[in-house]
Amino acid sequence: MDGSFDPSTGRIRKGGGLPRALLRWSGIALTASSWLSAGLFGAYILAFYGGAVPADRLDQWNRTLPRLYEPGHPAAAFAVGLHFAAGGFILLAGPIQLMGAVRLRWPRFHRWVGRSYVTAAGIAGAGGLLYILLNGTIGGLPMNLGFGLYGALMVLASIQTYRHARARRFDLHRLWATRLFALAIGSWLYRMDYGFWSLLTGDAGHTKAFDGSFDVVMAFFFYLPNLALADLFVRAQKPKAAWLRIPAALVLTGATFFVLLGTYYFTLYYWLPGIMKSLSGQ
Hints:
Blueprint: E1 5-6, E2 11-12, H1 17-51, H2 74-98, H3 100-105, H4 107-135, H5 141-166, H6 170-184, H7 186-201, H8 213-221, H9 224-236, H10 245-280
Helix pairs in contact: 1-2, 1-10, 2-4, 2-6, 4-5, 5-6, 5-8, 6-9, 9-10
């Protein structure tokens, strides 16, 4: 007999057998690997981008994406600075909110971190939108539309996550919280996807102006598949969708290996050297 879904914890209470266990552990593995990787990337963001502010070296922001900082545009620099600062926080705090043990044992801690999390996510989304409105992106219209939609979805998911929690609609709260986490890791996946693409294809379809065919796809690809995967994971936990558990577990396991492989190479060649350089003042 299949288990019943508990919306307050996001878990199936009893039953379900091996498929339920595979889905649960694949979800835990992906969350843990994402936390490790996103935490390292969040530390890199705070060290690299945040460290440039007191050193008055905002021009170094352009090393990773041209035209992020342009002298004479202080409002745009402020907006993208907010985006980076809030983004670094949500990458570090997000996985904490997905842990069932934290929600059950320390509900007050979960609520306070959650409030900070949705606020930071809303600021990150709004900051990105403001930057696009003031300065535009290097990739032009496709990148403006893709990144603009991303920012709007971040703001929407933040509002919905908080609103459903306040109304104690925990099933909808968890759905939107999972979607918000899937969006929050988008900036991290954006860089990781580019790194793998460069390694495998030699930058096919990518241009310095970020207007190539691959760049246009990536303007949307770094977050839309994440949303689909988040919805698949939540839906597969419900009793009526038990048939989805094994396929969902396989997809989550594949995503975990992708994250771990990418984390190893990016930490070794990009994030850790970037953090060390920022700490040494170079």
